[in-house]
Write a structure and sequence with these properties.
Elements lengths: L14 H26 L4 H36 L4 H13 L2
Length: about 100
């Protein structure tokens, strides 16, 4: 089956970076499935909330890692080529993340 991407822009990632990002996302996916199981098994609310907090922290860690890589690669590359709009795009991205 062909994957459909609705993204307008692309970024070529190394196989190592792709594997690292996907591994992190798979762990988060497992945490979310674990939360669903806890609800189905009628786990105690504070226990579910503790696990939800861990999943949220893991997603935040993923986002920070991706942001760091974006700054080191995409933003630096664009700025070196004189594409100063990369700085404004970064500012808008950070604003969106901090809502």
């Amino acid at each position: 089956m062909e994957k459909i991407c609705h993204c307008k822009r692309k970024k070529k990632r190394s196989p190592e970076e792709t594997a690292r990002l996907l591994s992190h996302l798979h762990r988060i996916e497992g945490q979310i499935r674990g939360l669903a199981n806890m609800v189905e098994e009628e786990a105690y609310c504070p226990d579910i909330l503790t696990q939800a907090s861990a999943a949220r922290a893991s997603l935040a860690s993923f986002s920070r890692s991706l942001l760091e890589e974006h700054i080191r690669t995409c933003v630096c590359h664009d700025l070196a080529e004189g594409k100063t709009e990369a700085a404004e795009e970064l500012v808008q991205t950070l604003r969106g993340m901090m809502k």
